Each structure stands twice: as C-alpha cells, then as structure tokens.
Amino acid sequence: MEADMTVTARTADLTGGRPVVPSRGVLRPLGLHEARITGGFWAQRQQVNSEATLEHGREWMDKLGWTGNFTAEAGQGSLDRRGREFSDSEIYKLLEAMSWEAGRHPDRARDDEIAELAAMIAGAQSADGYLHTAFGGPGQRPRYQDLAWGHELYCAGHFLQAAVARSRTGGDELLPIAMRLADHLCREFGADGRDAVCGHPEIEPALVELGRLTGEQRYVDQAALFVARRGRKTLPPHAFGWSYFSDDIPVREAHVLRGHAVRALYLAAGAIDVAVETGDDALLETVAAQFDRTVARRTYLTGGMGSRHMDEAFGDDFVLPSDRAYSETCAGVAAIMVAWRLMLATGRESYADLIERILYNVVATAIGDDGKSFFYAHTLHQRTTTDVLPDDVEQLGFGGGPRAPWFEVSCCLANIARLLASLSTYFASVDAEGLRIHHFADAEIDTTLADGRRIGVRTRTGYPENGDIAVEVTATEGGVWTLALRVPGWAAGASVEVNGVAQEAGRDQVLVRREFAVGDRITVRLPMAPRFVEPDPRIDAVRGCVAVERGPLVLCAESVGGALDLDRLRVDSAIAPTESDTVVVAAHTEQLADRSWPYGASKEKVPGQRHPVSVPLIPYHRWARGGPSTMRVWLPAA
Amino acid sequence: MEADMTVTARTADLTGGRPVVPSRGVLRPLGLHEARITGGFWAQRQQVNSEATLEHGREWMDKLGWTGNFTAEAGQGSLDRRGREFSDSEIYKLLEAMSWEAGRHPDRARDDEIAELAAMIAGAQSADGYLHTAFGGPGQRPRYQDLAWGHELYCAGHFLQAAVARSRTGGDELLPIAMRLADHLCREFGADGRDAVCGHPEIEPALVELGRLTGEQRYVDQAALFVARRGRKTLPPHAFGWSYFSDDIPVREAHVLRGHAVRALYLAAGAIDVAVETGDDALLETVAAQFDRTVARRTYLTGGMGSRHMDEAFGDDFVLPSDRAYSETCAGVAAIMVAWRLMLATGRESYADLIERILYNVVATAIGDDGKSFFYAHTLHQRTTTDVLPDDVEQLGFGGGPRAPWFEVSCCLANIARLLASLSTYFASVDAEGLRIHHFADAEIDTTLADGRRIGVRTRTGYPENGDIAVEVTATEGGVWTLALRVPGWAAGASVEVNGVAQEAGRDQVLVRREFAVGDRITVRLPMAPRFVEPDPRIDAVRGCVAVERGPLVLCAESVGGALDLDRLRVDSAIAPTESDTVVVAAHTEQLADRSWPYGASKEKVPGQRHPVSVPLIPYHRWARGGPSTMRVWLPAA
Fold this sequence. Notes:
Two copies of one chain form a homodimer. Chain A has 638 residues and is of the alpha+beta class.
C-alpha cells in the first residue's frame, strides 16, 4: 500500500456518472461524459449491450414472472412468487445498467422504462422501508429468518446500487425508495439491532456508495458494521463450510479470498469502500494483500476466479484446473470491482493490467455476438463437443455447453450489462499530476485536472488487434501536466513518440510531462508479437503446458466439430509462435495407444508416430461461436 | 466377452451365503463357509467391522432418529420424520451387513437384533406391500410423485438385498416383507403400470437377486423392464442433466458409464444381472464394454471412480484431478459389484485385479482404525492440513478433511460394512476346471468342484506386505483338477513352485493341473519391489508426475502437520525407489519464487536452489491417521 494517498476532492460534474466515487484516493475516476468510448472493440459491445442485451434481459424477466413478483400483490409479496430468492436483484442490476445507459445516451424511452420499473418497485415496498418480494407477505416466510440463503440484504444492496447509478446520471425516481430501504436496514441491523450478516455480501459496497452519494454517514457506518460482523460464524453451519459465506474468519484476520468467489469479492469491495471512507488504512492494506495473494495464487490465466463448480468457490492455492474451470462471469465482474477500487486508492497500474485481462478474456468471452446469449462459467478446456441448446429455453445448469439465452440463476447477464454500460469510466482517471489512460480504445476524454484546469484528449487505436495508440491533445488551459499511459506488464519493449520524437517508456507507464498544446500527439507502440507463457510449477493442472498470449488476449486452439484431437497435440515451444492472418504454433500430434488401464511403467509407453502440424490459434473470447467444438487454452509442450 | 460361458448349476450349499448367485457364468461363487479368511490384513478389518462398525452404525441411526422413523407411526409414516429420503436404505444396508456377519459367525445377539429390526420394518409396511417412511403417510408427500429424488425404489432395492442376504444365511424374517414389497412394485411398475424409473438405480440388481433366491421369474422380468426403461428421459430435467440418473441414453446404446458414479455402477450391476438371467449376451457385452472403457479412461490409480464433487459424477475421459478427487467410497463398493459380476460371467482375472486395487486403495482407505470413522470421498492430493473434527458430530460436507464418524449423507459406512462382512466370498471361485484363487490371505477353502468332488485348500501369506503365497491342499477326492491363482497385472516375473519344483507362471494366472494329494504345496512368489507408474498422457491433471506402487498398494507421500512442502518435491524417476523399513524415493526440493502473477515467459523462471531429499512413502490407505497432514499420490518428476 502506498503511503502517499492523496485526498482528491469531489470536483467532477456528478451528472457524468461513475460507479465508484471515493472521497479520497490517488486517482479520481471520470464520469460517463468525461470519458467516452467512440469506436472499436468495446464500443461495438456497448452498442450491442444497449440495443439487444438490455431488452433481452427485460423480456426474460417478464416472461419468467420475475418483474410480475412486484405487482402481483404489491407491497404484500405474492403467494405464487416466481423465481429464486435473488430474482429481485436481477431487475435491480438491469435497472442499474439502464441507468448508466441512460446517462451515456439520453433516451426518452429508456427514462420511461426506468420510471415504470421504479413505480412498480415503490409499490412493493413495505411502509417501514423493507423491500423483497419473497418474504414477509401473507403466506410467505417471515423476514430475516433465513439470512444464509434468503438474499434479502443482497437484493437490497443491488437496489441501492441501481438508485446510486440513477442519481449519478440525473434521475431521481429510485433514491427515495433506496433511502427508505437503507434507513430500514440501519434500524434493523444497526449497532442495537440484529447482530447478523447476509449470506451474500453486496449490501456493504452499496451502503457506502449510497453514503457517498447522499453524504449520510449512517450508511457508511452500517456498512462498516456489516464488514466487522463478518467472519464470526453467525450464519448457520452448512455443508460448504462458513468459508462459503466468508464468515469463517474476520475480514481483518484473513490472508486470502476464499469460499464462494462472488461473495468474497463483493465483500472485499465493500471492505475497501469502508476503509477508504473511514480512513482505515490497516483494513485497506489487509484487503489489498488478500486480493493480491488471490491474484498471485488463485486466478486463471484469463483473470477468471473460482475453480470449483460445487460451491462456486476459490480452491486452495494453485488449484486451477482447466477442465471445467469455473471462472464464473460474475466473479470476473466482481474482481473488476475490487481491482478498480484498489487502483483508485493506490494508483497502481497493475490493477489495470488485471482489469484488462478480465475484460478481454472473461467479460468479452461471456457474451454471444448477438448480445442475447451468455456463458455462466468459463472452462479453459473443452474435451468433447456439446449440444446446441435452443435459444428460447432457460438453462438449468451453469457449466459446459454453449452460451445460453438464460439461466435459472441468471446473474451474469445484468452484471455484464451494468459493467458495459459504465465501461468508459474505467478507462482513464485523474491523479495529482495529470491524466492517466488505463485502457486503449478510440475514445474522447474531456475532464478537469486536480487543480481545476480543463483538458481534453482523443485516442485512436486498432487495439487489441494492433498495439499502436495515438493520443492527441484536444484541449488544455496551459501549464505543465502529465499524460500517463499504462504499459501492460506483458509489453516489454514498448516505445513512445511525442510529436514524432522518441522518448523512453517506463516499466509500467509512459509518462509525458510537459506544457501541452492542443494538437500535441503522443504515439505509443506496444509489442504485439504472440508469446508463450508458462504456469507456476505448483499449478498441477497445467504442468508441462504452454499457453499463447497476444497483446491482452489469451489465445486458444479450437476444433469446431472436434475433428482435430486437441488432446493429442504436443507444441514445440522452442519455436516462437508465428503470425500471418492468424497466430500459429508448431506442434505434432502424438499417437496415443489405448490401454485397458491408463497407468503403467514408463517402458510400457507405445512410441507414438508423430505427425507435424501447424495449429492455428484464436482469441479465447472468440471460441464457441462457430458451433459445437473442442478447445484448449493450455497446450502440452513436446 | 468370451463366448464359452458355461452354465454352472446351483450346487453349493446356499446356507453358506453369497452376495451374487448367477444361474450361469464361467465361475461359480463360493459361500461364506466355503471360503473363510482366517488371518491377516482383511481378517483384522472384518473383525473391526464385526466388533465396532456395525454397532457404531446402529447407534448413529438410533441417535438421529432414522430407525425411529419406522416406529413413530408404524405403517403410516411419520410427520416429523428424521433424515433424508434415503435414510431407510442405511438401515437396510446395515441389516444386510448384519446378515452376512451372522452367516459368518452365528451369534444369538445378532440374530435377535435382526429379528427386532425385521419386526420394526414389518410394522411400517403398508397393507399393499409399499415400504418407505417418508411418503404416503398422513401429512406426507404422496407415493411416487418425486421419482427423481424420492429414492423410494432405491430404498426398496436395499431392503430386498438385505432380505436376500438374510435368506442366504439361513434367516427367514425378512423374505416375506421383501416379497410383499417386490410384488407391490411389480403391480405398480409392471408392463401395464407406471412407465417410470427411480432416480437412483438399485432396485434392478436387487430384484434379480430376489428372483434368483426365490425362483420367481416375475422379479427378473421387472428388473429387465426397469433396465429397458432407463435412458429415455422420463425423469424430469435437472441442472445436473439426465446423465446424472443414467437416464440420458438407453443402456444398450451407451458407450461408457457417465453421470453420478454410484447410480451408473448400480445400474450396470443390475443390467449385467438381467443379461445373465435372460440369456441376453448382447446386453452383457455392451455393459462390459462400457465398464471396460470406464476403467480405461475414467478411473483413478486407486481404482476410485467419479471425479466431480458437484454431482458426484464421472468426468469426461481422462479428467481425473488429484486435488479434490471425488472417488466416493460407495462408488468403490459399487465398482466391485460390477467387476465381480463381470468376472463371474466371463472368468477374466483382470476384473479381480481391479477389485484388488479398489479393496486396498479405496475400501481400506475409507475406514478409520477403530472402525468408527470414514472417508466419504478420497482425494489423491491434500494441499493444506485440515482441522480435526469432533468424533460425536455429524458432518455436513463430504469432501476433504479427516475421516468423520458420520455424515448427513452417510451411505459409506453400511456399504463398507456389507462388503467386509461378505468379503471372503470374493476371494475364490470354482470354474469348469477346478478352483480359482483370486485374492491372497490366510484363508481356508472347502468346496465342491463343478463335477461335485469335494476339495479343500489352506493359504498362508503375509500379503500385501509380502508377496509369497503358500497353498496347501487339505482335501481332495482324487482325479485331476486345476488350481489357478491370479497373477496380478503388475506382477511380471512371478514364480511358482509345486511341491518344491519350479513351474512356469502364466501371464495372468498360475495354473497347476494335476492329480492333487492332500499335503501338496504350491508356493507363488509375486515380485514386491516398489515401482514407478506413469499416467496416460491425456490425464492433464497429473502430467509430468509419477506415482509409486508396491504390490497391490498405491503409495503416497504424507507430511503430518504439513512441515514438508510436498508441492515443492521433484522426484528423480531415473533412480528406482528403494526399500528398507519403508519405501523411499530420491527427490529434490525446488525453491519456488512467489510472483504477483503466476504465469509468465519461460525466462522469467527463477532458477531454484535444489536440496536433495529422500522422501519416505506410505501406503495410501494409511494416510490421515496421524493427525492433520498434507499428502500427494502423484509426485512431479524432475
């Protein structure tokens, strides 16, 4: 943890909208109108999100009766309620996504839909502020009797997040509902209330954000209380263990994230928010160390987290199987939430490296090209082809198979949607010295520096295909400031030119400090040759394998139809991958003798016939888009 | 499948008791009094089973109210019923174990306990023969409305098995209840009845066994109907998929076992029984091929089956992670059921190889020394030490951690108990030529050959510590016959002496054919030097690793307290393992640098300091008996 955390005032125009607005930190995040993505890879995905995904989500939630739960017996809950205990939260996350989207592109129809949903939700809120369609109504289970699985505070948290997003983008329909709900929670779970936590963290960051928005300290205090209470085994015993709920060890005493990955990551995000707002640097350092250790030992090459299907959990250190890798989409979104918070607090670009890795290899992989199908989990090794699923059927399982239009537990869609709608706000920030550019896209940035000077830049790039990034200064009020561009960890040998003059690139940043003029051009070149990577030798699952990366992209070998037996490939890792239209690695196929028993003395091995073969690789995020296929990220080396 | 399957008549004294009594097959199984284990490794475990495990099981089933379910409102079910839907089956399996035990060692107290339980169960049976404590009573769910999860036919199957065991060991309390129950099932699920199967196979082998015992063809026909109905997706959709229930593909059309391992294996056992009794060689061949392929591609080194925790299922071919290997105890028992049936049908000793592997490395591993604690699952790699659990607390989870006294799902205890109580019947058999000895123990065999001649042999051995097996003929009525001893697949170089004269050992059998005289001595020497084994290169999880076996035992490295970092060991597999008091392999420890990101270019690797170390290995079945520890079966090779 860097000690020189500087306090940055809330100087930005709040109507621009930002997901996280800490009152202090090394970086100040930019709003939707301060940083806009105007073209390329992510602009295309934002467009699909706006034009297809949001509507797709709404249609399914209506079709399955999840929205209907709010209106059936408004305010009283419904006896024939549909969906799981957490279905309310999907509507809230969708509402959050719509709010960011409305902030990005004002749209009367979108505003009307938000107002409609807000009225519906307001109608379901109890007089005392309680809000959940599954509990407390006639014939329903009572409130707060099943904190482990009821998801009552989890849903509340997502509603608060939606309200914060809507308020930060200029709408006021949700905030009164949110404050009534939050005040109810403060009464119910305050210092003199129930000494309890929710089985699924989420209320923690949400309450802090609401406190940041409203300036009401009681919400931050309540979040701090929830963070302090976690880890004392107040939830009931379960087969998955208390670690599943992060309720096994107090937050301040843990060394690593464990148990259910999304739960652990949402809690970490909330703990960071609490630490930042309460000036608790010890807590901040502890959670940062837990996350750093999780990244170093419990994270897939893609940035995906959580290796266990049964309990959607982190495994032990270095237990990262490629087969049936879990790497839940929502854990990717949650890890970005944590990394972004740590980045704002510390300014460390390594967190942006991780965010980029997750964006290109988990988030981009999760979505079908039409924006209407999703991966819930992200295997890194598909051994057999799987059936194509009908696109009008809700999927009961989470793992394997092609992207599905909907899941019984369909948390990924709206989580991706809210991230994509607000994505540009993660791409740049302001620090004490000037502007920082973390991610590369065709973009326009128009903001104010810490001292209030207005500046603007325009970036142009073919990233991630191409590693050249051109930045042009479009506005400056004079005086010296710094333009900093992240140099990804993989980009050793990056070069930079300032108005055509070569300058030295730093290890993790290009820093250009000068009295800028409008029209100044900074051009960064990141080396994009494909490269082999090897795993830590403690990751048993991929021992003796190599993977190939190109720029921020993890590549994979895919065999549509499964005709090429990928499990027989042996890559010659002494020959660097080559690139023409596609990246190719040299390999041979090995004849593998079938035996009646798959273990034996070394001498029993059948000397295989070797056939040389060039194996084309594709970006991992492109896999499973051409029909049923087999796939490997990690390729055994010869 | 061998074509020369000979029909062997039911010539044995049935009161001897045998778990499986096919009406035809290459081998005729021996009863409890024809084959007795008199000392050594398994005798000790049979004694613990008799003296501790059966009582331990009964105590827990009483304490948790599982036995009480039968008496609370006898015959009507109970409103406050305790335990899961399948708890009845645990009492039935215990009853089966008690029956074999009573057959092995007549004991008035044991007979009294069986009679008490029989009366209790009879009281809970409905007038029409239905028997289950969770369904059909006042306030309970109706019968047969939840075939996927209700376990009604599963429980019925285990009751039939108990009744068969009791009848074959001379008791008659259970058979009338069983026949009423089976007749009810034939009416309810017959050709004109419900076109349905149970979510958990088990009724299939049970009905065939009841048919064999009683000579009533209708039970065999009903079993055949259940086998034919399976695989047509008549069970409702579930997140685990129809494969979980083996209901995805008809038995005759499948190529490999898949889905929930115990379900698949019990079904395979039933399908073999049906095939044998109905003369359906095509079905027999199909199921044998499925099982053989499962052994070749979906089985752990220990013989354990099922690699997935979430659904207790087989994974795809070669997906056999050591970390959190599932390898459920009950799947081991079930695999022995299948292998034994195939062995009886075909005479192939390779099935006895597999049974031996499972016995020494799954079954022996499952039981605590005191017979009162159990492994539900069998990991092959424990990375972190786990807490010691209290010995009076029911465990909610199945995976990881030390042996537990009881589980919420506590199927393993009684399954092991019924196997151990009947174990000697798997050790030898009679074929058309003479006597076959499949497993090695101090034992006494007293039986009749296929032509009715009485013979006897006594075996003495220090197996599995020692590979010398001495067989002495104790009875013969003259004439030529064959004494066959299995030569395990690993025992290349086995030697044999007949009355001191060396004779050639065959590849998988020692065959001694002669006119035996009482006192003839056959001595077989199996080579017991520890040996390295390597995995099929398609098993990604253990690529680049070796394991060590000695005789039938899989060995492992264990570090009590975790002081030695097993994940840093690199074994020098060019140096053969040595043996003095214990088996030792040469290795070095590698310094593994911690990095902030666990993947990188090869040149980034920190050249580790190497410290040579001799690593002592212990039998895998001995692990986790000295306190919390880390453990590896597969050791990375240098």
